[in-house]
Design goal:
The complex is a heterodimer of chains A (259) and B (302). In chain A, strand 1 and strand 2 form a beta hairpin. Chain A is built from five helices and 15 strands. Chain A is 15% helix and 37% strand. Chain B has one domain: TIM Barrel (Alpha-Beta Barrel). Chain B has nine helices and 16 strands. Chain B has an eight-stranded parallel barrel, surrounded by six helices. Chain B has a four-stranded antiparallel sheet with strand order 5-6-14-11, with no helix packed on it. In chain B, strand 9, helix 5 and strand 10 form a beta-alpha-beta unit. In chain B, helix 2 packs parallel to helix 4, helix 4 packs parallel to helix 5 and helix 5 crosses helix 6. The longest helix of chain B is centred in the last third of the chain and has 15 residues. Classes of the chains: A alpha/beta (259), B alpha/beta (302). At the A-B interface, strand 13 and strand 14 of A face strand 5, strand 6 and helix 8 of B.
Amino acid sequence: MLKNIKATAVLNETVAEGIFRLVLHCPQADLWHFVPGQFAHVRIPEHEELLLGRPLSINAVNIKEKTVTLICRVSGKGTLALSKTQKGTEFSAILPAGRGFNMQGKYKKIFLVGGGVGIAPLPPVVQKWPEKQYEAFLGYRGRNVSYAVDEFSGCEAVHIASDDGTIGERGTVTKLLEKRLSQVLPDVVLACGPAPMLRELKRIVEAAGLSCQVSVEQRMCCGFGACAACVCGVNTPDGRDYKKVCVEGPVFDIREVIL
Amino acid sequence: MDVNMQVSLCGVKLKNPVIAASGTFAFGEQHSWFIDVSRLGGVALKSLTPKKRAGNLPPRVAETASGIINSIGLQNPGVDAFLEKTYQKTLKLDTVLIANIAGETIEDYVYVAQRLNDTQISMYELNISCPNVKLGGAGLGTDPALAAKCVRGVKAVAKKPVIVKLTPAAEVVRVAKAVRDAGADAVSLINTYPAMAVNVRTKRPVLGNVTGGLSGPCIMPAALKMVYDVSRAVSIPVVGMGGIMTGEDAAAFMLCGARCVMAGTAGLRDPAAHIRIIDELEQYAKDMNISDLSALVGALEV
C-alpha cells in the first residue's frame, strides 16, 4: 500500500560532479516493505511553483535509523532546488513507491549493470539478498561523475568502464558485460541506466538468452498511478500498449518493455 | 457554527461542492489508497470512449512555472471493459459519480451514453474539449454548431443529466449558449489550455505528442474570468475549475458563479489535496459567517 509521508533531511552532500546524496529521516515510511529498485517520489520543499514530485532512486535503506538515502543528478529546476536543501528541511514524499526487482526466481549468480545515476538503486540488491553471488558492471562518463563504487564490495567482481577512460576501462559498460558473458553466464541480469545502454543491453541479453530486469525512467506526474503520464511502451499479444512506470514499474522484464 | 456544505447540481445532491476533475483521478482506486474518497462531493471519472485507447506517445507530462502540460491522449479501457471490470468498484467510492464521455464522432458520444444509461452513475460530462486528440475533442468544442449537435445527440438518448465540458480555446460564452440551447443541463469549465514545452538543448518538444494541455495555478485567473463570463450569460449551473489548489481558490470560483468546483492538478501534486480543499472551504465559510455554502454562488460584489 502506498503512503504519503513526511520526512526530514538529515544530510545533503555532493558525491560527484552534479550528483548529490540526500538522506531523509522518515519514521512514517514502511521501510521493512522496501524492495530494491523501488523509488521515492519527493516533492520540492519551498517551491510552490514546482508542482510535481520527482522520482528519485533509493540508494540505501536503514530500518533501524528510519532513513533512506537518495541519489540524484541535477538535471533541471526541481533537482537543482533539491540539491540545495539544508539539513532539517521537511519533505513530503510517496515512499517507497513502485515495484522493485523481482527475486522470485531461484537466482544464484546475478549480474548488476548500471549506467551513470542508474547505478544508485543497485547496491540495495546486494544488501537485501547477501546470499547470492554478484558481479557488478558500472558505467560512468568519467571519474568526475563516478560515485558508489565502494558500495559494491559485497560483489565477487566489480567491472568499471568510462567514456573517457579516467576510471576503469575506456568504453561502454555493455562492452564489458558482453566480454564477461563470453566466459560465464549469470542466472539473471538486473540493470538500470540511460535508454541507449538499456537498448544495447536488450540486444546482448537476447543474443545470450538471459533473463533480465531493467529499471526504466520516464517523466513522472503523480507517482501513484492516477494520471497515466509516466508510461512506457510494452509488447502485448494485441500489439503495442502502455504500462505505468510509477506503479507497474519502474522495473520491467526486458522482453516486455519497448526501450 | 455548522456550515451546510451540501449543494445540488442538476437535481443531484452532493455532500459538498468539491469534485475530482476527470483525467486526474482515474476511476478512484489510486486516491482511495490515501484518502476517504467518500468525503468528496463527487468524482468525475476518467474519459470513456467506445473502444480502448492506448493513449499518446510518452513523454506525456512537462512541468512549467506553476503549471503542468499533459498529453495523455484519453488512455482508457473503453466503456465495455469499464463496465465489466471497474464499474462495480467505483460504486464503492460512495460518492456521486460523473462519467466523462469522449469520442471521435458524435456517434461515439451517443454510444457511450447509451451503454452507461442503466448504471448508478449520476451524471454525464461530455468532453468536447480535450486538446490531445486529433479527432473529436476540442475540435467539437470550438465550433458552437458542432458542439450543439453533439449535445442534442446525447440528450436524445441520455437518461441522466448532461454536463458539457468546455475548452478555453474557443469563444467560450458562444459555445456555452449553444450547448444550453441544445439542452445541456450544466457546463463545466475550463478544460486545459492547448500548450507546449520545448527542450532548447535537444531542439525537440518535451512531449511525445508535441503539444498538450496546460493546467494548474497558472491558468486560474483566466479560468475565473471565463466562469464569471459564462455564469452571467447562461442560467444553467456552471461547474468551475482551473488550477484550484486551496479552499479559498474554490470559494473564488463559487463567488464568480460556479455551483460546484473541480480540482485536478492539486490532487496529482498531493493525493490528499481534495480533502484539504474541502476542509479549507468549510473553514472559510465559518470565518465568513456563511451558514449555507450555496449562498456563495455568484455572490461576487462588483
